[in-house]
Design goal:
Belongs to the metallo-dependent hydrolases superfamily. ATZ/TRZ family. By secondary structure, this protein is α/β, with parallel strands linked by helices. Helix content is 39%, strand content 21%. The protein starts with 5 loop residues before the first strand and ends with a strand. It binds guanine and fe (iii) ion. Guanine (GUN) binds at residues 80, 95, 99, 103, 214-215, 241, 244, 303, 307, 329, 332.
Length: 454
């Protein structure tokens, strides 16, 4: 009983299933020295009073204030860290032109480590302040700056999964921003994997190297094959973009006479530790291959509204057994907040279900059974993200990491619209999901350590 390094008393919201929110009212949460939730005690349990009497008044015993609630920390499955420097701009062009006009010139600047330090330091702080405790990052082609991002995550206490981006095809990438050739890209990726694994030895919350071909159009066959081999050799996570837009989807069909999913699989890039961004244009066969290989989808609904020419058929893919989580896709998605993306996931799904062209009859306008609830969107931002990464995060549950955000519904600058002292707790949950601002996120904890206070 005295092995707990932290004990919290309060009310928590966590996903029970993709549809159901579990409300743990006035529970005790006991955290061990590794930062894992080792015991959750209900008020009616025998030990409850005894634990309170033993620990109360001590520094490690935290009683949440009135109006404060616990939520799992969010898992952002798709962030382009370098693009934070252009977030909110460059939203006017389609994907291919956007990459060449704005994004590659910006990413090329991360050969400068001082610039990388200033952007990456601010981004990690900002994501933590928005409740994101785990993030799956694309860095740039530069090995040193990519390693710096992992070091910043390590130092600031965020669980970071970081990829040095590979883009070696001279036909598709500008001379000022690409890997020198496939061999160099693979050597540097291997060095990066080893350096992050070494760094991880001293990091409580974990930092992980990720094999990261930007997307098939950026990479030669040799690089794609070599990256699949490296992921297998070092048992790493893998990330890329898959079937995102009409252009990207058709490019791969023309080059390989097959869809992204099957091409990626041929190179050994689909596994239980793979997370593919977007994947809007998966056919049923592609989706079945994702389910079979354990490949997850990073759903980025805000980004999709600008760049994907479509809305992800989320229900269809979930029913086929694919793990799905949420991503901001900074900067194609211009917000650091998964709250914004959870709302957008609901909105986009409603528009997919109803359809958008008022000139069509109602029964021909949309795709039936597409809408998702805010409960499902919350699941995607939390438990769905953890499942996608195969890491025990995203739930407030025994055996999971103590990665939480403490929400203050009464903070004067951003009081939530709760006026009844006996407000239904599920209504409070919904009001949090729809109305929270960074001001309401008072504390963020990762792996049992406080990493943000406001
Ligand atoms: N496809 C290849 N690179 C990118 C990127 O940086 N953002 C998005 N949204 N799609 C991509
Ligand atoms: Fe992206």
């Amino acid at each position: 009983m005295n092995n707990y390094t932290q004990i919290f008393v309060g009310t928590a919201f966590t996903s029970d299933s993709s549809e159901k929110i579990s409300i743990l009212k006035d529970y005790l949460f006991c955290i061990n020295h590794s930062g894992m939730i080792s015991k959750i005690v209900a008020p009616q349990d025998e030990e409850y009073q005894l634990l309170i009497e033993t620990h109360k008044g001590q520094d490690h015993f935290h009683v949440l204030d009135d109006g404060h609630y616990l939520l799992p920390g969010f898992v952002d499955l798709h962030v382009h860290a370098p693009q934070w420097a252009q977030s909110g701009t460059a939203q006017d062009l389609p994907l291919y032109d956007w990459l060449n006009t704005y994004t590659f010139p910006l990413e090329a600047k991360y050969s400068d480590l001082d610039f990388a330090q200033s952007v990456y330091g601010n981004l990690v702080d900002t994501l933590l302040a928005n409740g994101t405790t785990t993030a799956l990052y694309f860095a740039t082609v530069h090995k040193e700056a990519s390693l710096l991002l992992a070091e910043i995550c390590a130092q600031k206490g965020q669980r970071g999964l970081v990829g040095k981006v590979v883009m070696d095809d001279p036909e598709q990438n500008p001379p000022y921003y690409r890997d020198q050739d496939a061999e160099t890209a693979l050597r540097e990726t291997e060095e990066f994997i080893l350096a992050v694994k070494e760094l991880n030895k001293t990091v409580k919350q974990g930092v992980y190297p990720v094999v990261t071909p930007r997307f098939i159009p950026s990479c030669s066959d040799e690089a794609l094959k070599g990256l699949g081999d490296l992921a297998l050799k070092y048992d790493t996570h893998i990330q890329s973009h898959c079937s995102e837009s009409d252009w990207a989807h058709h490019y791969v069909k023309e080059r390989f006479n097959k869809h992204d999913a099957f091409a990626l699989n041929d190179f050994g890039l689909l596994s239980d530790k793979s997370v593919m961004a977007h994947s809007n244009f998966l056919s049923d066969e592609d989706a079945a291959l994702f389910a079979e290989t354990g490949t997850a989808i990073a759903h980025c609904p805000l980004s999709n509204a600008y760049f994907a020419n479509s809305v992800l058929p989320l229900h269809r893919f979930r029913k086929m057994g694919i793990d799905i989580g949420l991503g901001t896709d900074i900067s194609a998605g211009a917000t650091p907040s998964l709250y914004d993306n959870a709302k957008q996931a609901v909105i986009s799904s409603r528009m997919l279900e109803d359809g958008v062209n008022a000139n069509l009859p109602a029964d021909e306008r949309g795709v039936a059974n597409s809408r998702i609830t805010i409960n499902e969107a919350f699941y995607l931002a939390t438990a769905g993200g953890g499942e996608s990464l195969s890491i025990p995060v995203g739930r407030i549950k025994e055996g999971y990491a103590w990665d939480v955000q403490i929400i203050d519904t009464k903070v004067p600058a951003a009081k939530l619209p709760i006026f009844d002292p006996n407000e239904d707790l599920y209504d409070i949950f919904q009001k949090i999901m729809y109305n929270v601002r960074p001001e309401n996120i008072r504390e963020v904890w990762v792996q049992g350590e406080k990493v943000h206070t406001r």
